[in-house]
Write a structure and sequence with these properties.
335 residues, TIM Barrel, ten-stranded mixed beta sheet, two-stranded parallel ribbon
């Protein structure tokens, strides 16, 4: 059984060519084929010798696969389904918006974070994606060349799959890979504290933290991770970093009617984030089966945003997209 070359870092490719007794420069050539030209087969790597291609083919394949299905929303959003591993699948959302096109990438099949408002959480944890399966959502999209931004906000908790996430980010941003600017990539987390520290030390991609309530007890009911990693400690950690560098910190706040949308809670959120250079994205709640939450009123959301902005915290209201095909925030699930 062969394994994929796609999703391998340059260091991993160098190890492979060394094990096969190929010239050291072959690793860079293979990387170029994988990430610069999207070659479809090892035999297509024409600047490798026939012997080298034969040796590679004995143990490896390219590792890319086409999406299994696609749905298109009335507003232009497309939701793709990909194979994650045997018997399991993930969903990916492509969100075009005038001169910008964002890809929402999954890192796990299911999730074990247990957030009360999320459809993926109700699916349960089914397994981690490797870097090949994560990046394949980007490479194999028909709109691949149109993508301007990537957000790791799809199915799963990215920082619960740290090694494969970091490999994916390296390949996306490295000169041997896709050479993307880190500022075009955002990674979202429920607040896995040790991984946030590692990420901030080793990446220049943007960070988004799911907040959703300023009160620890109330947040814990929405997001069990608050028990282990209180968001107050996350914020203290972020304040300790030098944020003058080009790395944006944002907080995601899903607006739940009567739960977290009062002006008192807006003021508490402002106090919690005071002193940290960041922005807040307010997100409409999208109803999922078996969940009793309701979305906040639009006027309530605007008042919440106005309160935070008056307190000096840049706050935007994220436009809801793809809801009719279950591609909006919190709705991805292959269950």
């Amino acid at each position: 059984m062969t394994s994929p070359l796609y999703g391998k870092t340059l260091a991993e490719l160098s190890q492979i060519v060394e094990e096969l007794s190929l010239p050291a420069y072959s690793a860079r050539q293979i990387a170029d084929w994988l990430y610069k030209t999207n070659v479809s087969s090892i035999n297509g790597m024409s600047n490798l010798s026939a012997k080298a291609r034969a040796l590679l083919s004995e143990k490896y394949n390219i590792g890319a696969s086409e999406p299994l299905a696609v749905q298109t929303s009335a507003d232009g959003v497309k939701k793709y389904m990909f194979t994650a591993f045997e018997g399991k699948h993930v969903e990916t959302a492509f969100i075009p918006d005038r001169d910008r096109a964002t890809l929402c990438v999954s890192t796990q099949a299911g999730c074990r974070m247990g957030c009360a408002f999320c459809a993926t959480a109700r699916q349960g944890m089914q397994g981690n994606l490797d870097a090949a399966a994560i990046l394949n959502q980007f490479r194999s999209l028909p709109e691949h060349k149109d993508i301007t931004n990537i957000v790791f906000m799809g199915m799963g908790e990215p920082f619960d799959n740290m090694d494969e996430l970091m490999k994916s980010l390296e390949i996306l941003t490295a000169a041997y890979g896709y050479a993307w600017a880190p500022k075009r990539i955002t990674v979202s987390t429920a607040g896995v504290l040790p991984s946030i520290r590692y990420f901030m030390d080793n990446s220049r991609c943007n960070l988004a933290v799911s907040l959703n309530h300023p009160d620890p007890e109330a947040r814990c009911k929405l997001m069990p991770i608050e028990n282990k990693f209180p968001v107050k400690r996350v914020i203290e950690l972020l304040k300790s970093f030098d944020l003058n560098r080009q790395q944006r910190i944002s907080f995601e706040y899903i607006m739940l009617g009567g739960v977290n949308d009062s002006l008192q809670q807006a003021n508490a959120t402002a106090r919690l984030l005071s002193g940290l250079r960041c922005r807040v994205n307010l997100i409409h709640y999208h109803a999922i089966p078996g969940c009793s939450f309701v979305p906040s009123n639009d006027n309530v959301i605007r008042q919440f945003a106005d309160t935070l902005n008056r307190k000096g915290i840049i706050t935007t209201i994220r436009r809801s997209r793809g809801q009719d095909i279950n591609a909006a925030c919190g709705m991805l699930s292959t269950k």
